[in-house]
């Protein structure tokens, strides 16, 4: 190995050249997602027409969708605000995918993380914000991570499939939150319904754009989101731990044979994924909601699965997907107000996007003309 | 039934696995189809039994051209195949497996298992196969499972029976019994195709021989005695081959790996390795012979720290490593070529460079703090690729684009380009072409000549004989015999492999 | 025994090996002993007076008297029984009885709990059992849908969405065409989603879990959209008739058994009949044998001329139809109107019931009854005013499922090819 260094320099250089990504790979990465989004919007329009919405309104609603997502400062602020938790939780799920874990439990981890953050947020009166906010975020990440680590540990120690255990942990978390919200020290005073006290001002993520307009909700969580994308990208592709995650995700047996500690990796990956989901929960209570109530997760944990899939489990892809879903979310609200079309339509569009992403063969079958040229190009190569 | 294959070609993408093959198969005759791994034998037969549609060419049965839309139609036409990997459902009984697809039924689709059992017994009696129709497949030894496959084929009243590498999983004694069954099938008028890469076998059983190389028929012999083994080998590989491995005279060093009373349990508490003791010296190749499934895999997993040891001890250069992890053993100088390169040896979707550091990525050479030094890794991989003759255009190619032989060379490069003391190689050449086999063998011999201890586990007796200085035979989890590699006799080892030594 | 090396001797029989079965027996033993302590210390010492279980209503033709038992002494007796079962686990040779002991132990513990909760009060046992059966229906049908599709190796996370689709369609079409029409439509739409799942995973080779999740999201999206977009304006579209109970003559008048089993509407009987039919289909017919072969070893099935893809399509579509029927129960069988996300996780519990029932229709039904029991117990507990928060009882089935998949008490075995796509070459 040492003496080889000088002997075969010429050969090695050719070997170190990276081949350009193949046309087919590029198509799967770029063309399929674009098709997916376009087709989902078209089918969404069809759904509106089928439910007795006239053509003009359909047009108006899509204009409203666009306006509400990127049409104004407020719209962009709303889009980013909605994108933050989706991206954070989506990163967690993507990390799990890379490590070979299908984490359906982001919803539960988000709830548990959010509860921990809320408790940390209304306790500790008198702390300066510079300490309190990180503390709240840390509490959320830690609680979410530990909750997810249960599923990881079960998988590592007993082989219990994480899909089942995270589904069960989701269901458990709903009941747990119901229970916690009625506890004396958490429940807001004077209320009989399950709702928590509000987080203190020092525990709120600072609003970024109130100097422009006090109604703009964009908060410092957006920096958290970008930092998380960078960190996870570094972790997955530049570090030893990331190599271990990806190796056990692709082929756990080979990873074990190579001396990697499969159990530890699974628990760590699940824990990190849960921490990101918990962070998303903390972000919601400390940046947007200010308190916890039943179902404050609002399905973000499930949408995050879609975000991770659409982002191809790549951190930057997840960011783009999170922004897209955030835009749909924000635009959907505007659509409901301006065109009177229920925001639930967004759910249909999101699901359709994922159908096409998950089954690229389906897209190729439906739209062969979009790919024919590429196939010919490949044959000529 | 007479079958003729006319100019059959089968392409996968650009690659022609079978090119322009013509074959004649006659009743009452065993046609031996010889070829090394990857020559296209299985592809050709999968075309014949309806699993693949040929790209061009035709199949003619009794003068009439036929096409098969699926295996069902081939079965109806009287073609039956015993696959190399058995097509049995482990949780079903023998009778259920036999009738699957052609089930006897009563009213409202009711499965008539009583009738099925009776039919199995009838075939049992006719050919002397002795299989219990109510036994669960997963409880049966492989030799019996193979007989179930034969019953399956006979139950479908096949006139042509294809055996794909049927002896790979059998002891030499079971092979003898199996040949008797094949002969009785032939004598009852069936046409038989016997696919193998083993030269000795084909001359024993075949009435006629056809040799396949790189998808083409390169030679035929009307009688097995008309050709010598050396001639067949040359036809099969395309050049003269010698199966001897060049190595220095046997001069073992001090003991390196000492295993004492090792016991390993399987997940279901069955004993997989039973009180095994063995020693590997430095500059020595110890071969472990035995039919697959006699505890060799568990032994290797225990030695490499991959499975829990229930009793006994393992010492390496005087140090007790019974409880040491895989990583610790790796650091101490273990190299391990796992038995299944796709499942446990490599990560097919990863690049060559990534696979090259799969078990040494944590080393100071390749990482600094939490960060991987990918540039260093890539350069090192490029050198190893050259050094071990892995044919690839770039170290960034995914491993699943490589051929089996190149994949195995990649594993050898990973494990043997480090400074190691002990090499444990499990089935190091399974499924490889002769060129790759020769290459891997020479590297293993070279490691031993440089003073490494080597433990080879293989179910190919020829491989064990070619490489080993000492031979141990494993049967039902125990070491039942030991032979000197230079003087060992194939027949005696065969007896030991069947537990009759 | 060799004195030098205690860990090993020449004789394999006398060696003490680390054995999973023995470990399991011991774990179960500790669980049983723990339950015994619980029964004695909490349920025994904490109970006073008489626990009264009402078995019949006074108007019933053959009314049974109330069952009154002294709470404390009953629970001490149960504690003793549990302790006996627990200690037995540590004796040699009881390895075989582990599951049975643990099962009966858990049953005893539940009885002790009930006695403790009822001590000094009265409680309608029959009413609770009746609620158990009713609550078990959608879970059992969801579980059965899971069994049918996983037996051909298609993981079915989409049960939830199929149930929701059935509920929605039942309400919509039921409002327009009446109950029977609604039911037929619900089954059809359920089957349609089964077919879509099959198409996604078989033909378009999408990941099975992702495909399931997507169907759930899609159905949730569509049903929520329509109910907020359309139902708010056209209320008559969401006002379906509810199937009336059918009293089975004579049997319905039996005490306890009558109200629990024979005074229900079509859906309860339908569920039981479907479970019976599915059992016959899977384990006693030619097609069932083929279906299971496809789930265990699709390539083997393929080499024998069995069409793997078609088998998967048919079975997953049937699974969808069963789930559609189960979903219709939520609207046509109980409340007559659709609410957003009204399944609320029942599909996932059905999935748990399938695992609990070890991929067997009857097992899934039994598991559904256990989950239904826990559910109705939770509701009744609120009436009994026990110190245990009802949320924790509601969690019990989920925790039990986790314990089961973790294999603490013996692992269930899924079909060998479960979750894997089959690619024909």
Report the average pLDDT across residues of chain C: 85
Q: Into how many domains do the coordinates of chain C divide? A: 2
Helix-strand sequence of chain A: HHHHHHHHHHHHHHHHH
Largest sheet of chain C: 3 strands, mixed
What proportion strand of chain A?
under 5%
Helix content of chain C: 55-70%
Assembly classification: heterotrimer
Strand percentage of chain C, roughly?
under 5%
Q: Helices and strands of chain C, in N-to-C order?
A: HEEHHEHHHHHHHHHHHH
Overall shape of chain A: it is globular
Q: Quick one: which chains have the greatest interface?
A: A-C, 48 and 44 residues
Largest β sheet strand count, sense and barrel closure of chain A: none
Gap from first CA to last CA of chain C: 57 Å
Query: Structural class of the secondary structure composition of chain A?
Result: mainly alpha
Helicity level of chain A: over 70%
Provide a count of the helices of chain C: 15
In short:
The complex is a heterotrimer of chains A (381), B (501) and C (425). Helix content of chain B is 33%, strand content 26%.
Structure, described:
By secondary structure, chain A is mainly α. Chain A has a domain at 89-321. Chain A contains 17 helices and no strands. In chain B, helix 14 runs parallel beside helix 15. Chain B contains 17 helices and 22 strands. Chain B has helices at 41-48, 71-76, 94-99, 113-127, 142-155, 172-187, 199-205, 229-237, 296-303, 326-332, 341-345, 352-356, 374-387, 404-416, 434-449, 461-467, 490-497; strands spanning 3-12, 15-25, 29-34, 56-61, 64-66, 79-82, 160-164, 191-196, 208-213, 216-221, 255-265, 271-281, 284-289, 311-316, 319-320, 334-337, 367-368, 371-372, 422-426, 453-457, 470-475, 478-484. The mean pLDDT of chain B is 89. Chain C has a three-stranded mixed sheet. Chain C starts with 19 loop residues before the first helix and ends in a 20-residue tail after the last helix. Chains in contact: A-B, A-C, B-C. Chains B and C meet through helix 2, strand 11, strand 12 and strand 14 of B and helix 10 and helix 11 of C.
